[in-house]
Amino acid sequence: MTAQVFNFSDYMDQEPTAQQKALWDKFVEEYLKDFNSLEAAMRVGFNMTFAQEYSRIFMGQPYVQRLIMHHKMQPIDEKTEVEIEKSLIIATLKECMQNGQPATRVVAAKTLAGIRGLDQAPDRSSEELEKLVDSFKEIAKSVPD
Hints:
Layout: H1 18-34, H2 37-44, H3 48-59, H4 62-73, H5 78-99, H6 102-116, H7 126-142
Helix pairs in contact: 1-2, 1-4, 2-3, 5-6
């Protein structure tokens, strides 16, 4: 008896079942968030081991490709488009911070900090600044000459 090999390419031109459509619809929905097929497969519920293979398989499905193209062709207002682009930029910067070369990671972190406003000194009232200065004066008094 020989082992039966499951070949996805044999099923690529067939109409997907309702269960496949539901899975692929969810995959496309997740994919459109950041255009990252691996992350989309993991958000659908696959663990990392299977997500790598299934993200590749799903992206090769004509049904998935048609659905992605359909969504890309939908008109969206300018505000929504800007929000989508902003999300993609932030997702890309986060990915660079996690997976990039050291210099790339630093630049991505600095850029993301700028977008989030983390590179700015916090606004302090003059009363808060006076308290801070007084605290430093007290510390300076305790330091021996």
